[in-house]
Amino acid sequence: MTTRRDFIKNSIIGTGVGLSFGTVAFAQGDPFKWVVNVDLTGPASYGGRPQGDGFEQYVQWKNANGGINGRMIDLTVTDTTFSVDVAAGNFRRAMAEGGTSYFFGDSTGTIQAISPDNNSTHRVLTGGGSFASELADPERFPYYFVAGATYGDQLKLLVNYISQTMDPSEARLAIMHSSISLGRDGIAEAQAEAERLGIEVVLLQQSNFIEADVSTFALAIREANPTHVLFHGYSFAVWPETVRLVRDFGMDEVVFMSSMWQNEYDKIVELADISQGLIGIKVFETDTNTGSGAMIDIIRDIHLARDADFNGYVRLGFMDGWFNGMMAAKAIEDTMNAGMEINGDNLAAALEAVTDWDTGGLIGIPASFEGHKTGIGQIIRWENNDGTWNSTPVSDWLKVD
Question: What is the pTM of this model?
Answer without folding.
Answer: 0.90
